[in-house]
Amino acid sequence: MTDYDNSNTRISVHEIIDGRPVPGDWDDFLAHRNDTKRLFRVDISTQESASLNNIINVIHKNPLIVERCLDPDSVSGVYAYNNMLSLQLPIPEDWQASAHPKLSILCLSNALITIRTNTITEYSSALLNNPASIPNQPLGTEGLLFSLLDNIVDRASELTLKARLSVEQLETDMQQIVDEERLGRHILSLKQAAAHFEMALEAKHRTLMALLSLDTELINLRRIREPLHDVVAHVEHSLRYIERVEDHLGELDRHFLLLLHDRTNNRLRLLTIISAIFMPLTLIAGIYGMNFRFMPELSWHYGYGTVLLVMLSLALGLLWYFYRKGWFR
Asked: Which class in CATH covers the domain with range 265-324?
């Protein structure tokens, strides 16, 4: 449910009742944000620092939270404040994207709040606005946190598989090179995308490891520590997978350079054959193009035809020689 919505700021509130999200109310959340018997899930989307500052100050007066949420270069990790736990991690939308939006997560004793200041696609927007039911997870902020992190990591695993499929398609395309320059740019863009995606996975892994080692009384992390280990294992698997994708891209890049080298050699071989054929022909033409007064062949009736026949014989002979030597293979 969207409780507050304008052109730049959007707030969605759900109350978790019996493990299921029920549309809630922003004012109701503010009135009961310290009621530990109720559990809320809030998603805030804004690109205005003033709006975000006003919203956060209502919940928790700490300027560092707003600063980290709005800073695109802020380091992913876990930060503890008074009565609040803050997490920041990237949520890749497309593995080929040059930059990945960051998600800020605020954990209160009875609420999980997500803050995003970047444009996010419908997939992640639905994930953040409509939290999944968590009947098999412990109720509480820690249960909501685990459910969200698990979904984000699952999404990253899907993108890792898409990366592999993209590289396999590239390998197929390389069998029939049409535009060498375009293919070279495509390989370079995929290598850069894989590097950026790996950095996003590393940031996610770093945040999860920091969360596992955190000891706080704000939320009961011990209840989700064991399933969090499985989530970390999935991230590590994705990291190993994307490293193999990068290695494969490196091999394809080297193979592409070899193909270009072979094509260049073939062109040079053709130019060499043409030059070798025309060198003796040019020599003959140069000799009979000299303006000497006494050249007996010039007055011979069959001289012109004989010279042409000799030149043609030389050209055919050289072509046959190069063919026998395998220069046309």
From this structure: mainly alpha
Residue 274: count other Cβ atoms within 10 Å of its Cβ: 10
Distance of alpha carbon 187 from alpha carbon 253, whole angstroms: 7
Q: What is the mean pLDDT of residues 306-329?
A: 82
- Which pairs with CB-CB distance under 8 Å and at least 24 residues apart come from 284-287? 284/310, 284/311, 284/314, 285/311
Give the chain's radius of gyration (CA, Å): 35
Angle (CA) 23-29-31 rounded to 5° is 145
Please give the backbone phi and psi of residue 112, each rounded to the nearest 5 degrees, phi first. -120, 125
What's the CATH class of domain 2-259?
alpha beta
Residues of the chain with CATH 3.30.460.20: 2-259
pLDDT tens, 126-145?
555 445 444 455 568 888 88
Q: Other CB atoms closer than 10 Å to residue 122's CB: what's the count? A: 8
In the chain, CATH 1.20.58.340 sits at 265-324
* pLDDT per position as a tens digit, 141-159: 888 888 889 888 988 999 9
Distance (Å, whole) CA 162 – CA 170 = 12
Per-residue DSSP letters for 258-293? Answer: HHHHHHHHHHHHHHHHHHHHHHHHHHHHHHTTS--S
